[in-house]
Write a structure and sequence with these properties.
Length: 488
């Protein structure tokens, strides 16, 4: 996973290249934020404007875009698909419920917010943020209704655990895109990402939740009922991964009973099989990173770890293990297992297209020479590469509302700076961009509205809670990255 080296597609001067970059990014921002275009189309339009404004021939711009698109799909896209399959098996087999129930039932009182943050982080390793929210919200609402802990003291830690993992830890799309664009070491980035995730989840989760709950009072809304097929004929009692809506049916009976049926209706593979399956790919990739740090090149053990920890191999091993430990133990036959795995792919089509188009946009930036110009300017101005990556990601995130677009654009702009950094610095640069991509989610972000509706909050309450939480995650995550940079 690396940047494609190619001859420059234009011989424009510095001023024209900077103007082209500004115009290209502005087009992407305007098409997403104002014209409400899908980010996939907006990135294509921005790439075209960028190439033409830089003086590149239309054919060269198209070739550059398609090269970046294909390379990104071949590397990042494959990993996203495999990660989605593991997440689907975890969700549909009831494995996620096993993890949540074991942890939540084992603690009470003041420890519940901490337990909720921990279980959200664990479940969030293989799951996309939106799927994690859908799985955990019914549990959060049920626990909040049955205890006096409070909705925000439980909900904020759960959201923080999911969001931090989504932005900082592979195999989520954002970190993978940054790793691919910067040619960062995945094992090292994963190791540092997990180190940063721990204090970030604690501060943005239980600590912030206890503070904000004093000033923002949100009653527990009606609990949710899974929508769609309830016949129980499909995998996990008819709750197919692709059809998971979990929307409330107001006239369907007592809310608490609805959630009880939702949780208990899934066939559970057990706590430890679910945990071990989720952690297998992470453990293999971490083992590879550690092996590369402590073992000499050519060592037999290191060679074996490098193969086993290759992202594709690690995630494929996780999928195969999930088919047995989750699917088989939950009672799925081969047809049902195949249906769950296949059902995990349509929901990520939009993400794959955005990531692919972002790879094309990044490649046009690289081939036009924009990144080199900005990198040279950053060196001349003595701007820290990590700070530059974070600031660019913050700006794009606030403007577009898309963490993925922010990651792609920022990585493309600062990619030339990666050449002057060692492997540790490049891994930290990827994490700095990931942290910036989470900054201040507001009304142009679909996640903002998802959280608002699920928790029954007003726009103002959502800004005071969710938006501030995302900002804390971004700032604390970046502070952790800078601290690691000083240590290593």
């Amino acid at each position: 996973m690396s940047i494609i080296a190619a001859e420059a597609i234009t011989d424009a001067g510095t001023g024209q290249l900077v103007l082209a970059a500004v115009l290209g990014i502005a087009v992407v921002v305007l098409l997403i934020a104002w014209a409400k275009w899908h980010p996939f189309l907006a990135l294509i339009g921005g790439s075209a404007v960028l190439g033409l404004a830089a003086g590149a021939a239309p054919g060269s711009t198209i070739d550059s875009f398609t090269t970046g698109l294909g390379t990104t799909v071949g590397s990042v896209g494959l990993l996203i698909a495999l990660g989605s399959m593991i997440g689907a098996m975890l969700a549909e087999s009831g494995g996620a419920d096993s993890v949540v129930s074991r942890v939540v039932n084992g603690v009470s009182g003041a420890a519940l917010p901490w337990a909720m943050a921990g279980v959200a982080a664990l479940v969030g390793l293989p799951l996309f943020f939106e799927v994690g929210v859908v799985l955990l919200v019914p549990i959060v609402l049920l626990v909040a209704r049955r205890t006096d802990v409070g909705l925000l003291r439980l909900g904020i830690p759960a959201l923080a655990g999911l969001s931090v993992l989504h932005g900082l830890v592979p195999p989520h799309p954002g970190p993978l895109v940054a790793i691919s664009s910067l040619n960062a070491d995945l094992g090292l980035t994963l190791l540092f990402g997990l180190i940063c995730a721990i204090p970030t989840v604690i501060i943005a989760g239980p600590v912030f939740a206890n503070l904000v709950a004093r000033y923002v009072h949100v009653p527990v809304p009606a609990l949710l009922e899974p929508a769609g097929d309830r016949s129980g004929s499909g995998p996990a009692g008819g709750r197919d991964f692709v059809d998971r809506d979990d929307l409330l049916n107001p006239g369907a009976g007592d809310p608490a009973e609805l959630v009880d049926r939702q949780v208990s209706g899934r066939r559970s593979p057990g706590f430890w099989p679910a945990v071990l399956t989720v952690l297998l790919p992470v453990a293999l990739m971490l083992a590879r990173g550690v092996g590369e740090l402590v073992l000499p090149e050519g060592n037999t053990v290191r060679n074996a770890l490098e193969i086993a920890g290759e992202p594709v191999v690690a995630l494929l091993a996780g999928v195969v293990l999930a088919m047995w430990t989750l699917g088989h133990r939950a009672g799925f036959d081969r047809k049902e297992t195949s249906a769950v795995l296949g059902g995990s792919l349509p929901p990520i089509a939009g993400i794959l297209l955005i990531v692919a188009a972002g790879g094309g946009f990044k490649q046009v930036l690289v081939d036009a020479g924009v990144g080199t110009v900005i990198a040279d300017a950053a060196r001349d101005a003595n701007i820290n590469a990590l700070l530059l990556g974070w600031l660019v990601a913050v700006g794009i995130r606030v403007a577009t509302g898309s963490a993925t677009v922010a990651t792609i654009t920022a990585a493309g702009i600062v990619a030339p700076l990666a050449g002057s950094l060692d492997s540790t610095g490049v891994a930290l640069l990827a994490l700095a961009i990931g942290a910036g991509s989470l900054f201040f989610s507001h009304v142009n972000d679909a996640g903002f509205w998802m959280v608002k509706e699920y928790f029954g909050m007003t726009v103002g309450q959502t800004i005071k809670t969710w938006s501030v939480m995302e900002t804390i995650i971004s700032v604390v995550g970046f502070a952790c990255v800078m601290l690691l940079d000083l240590i290593f």
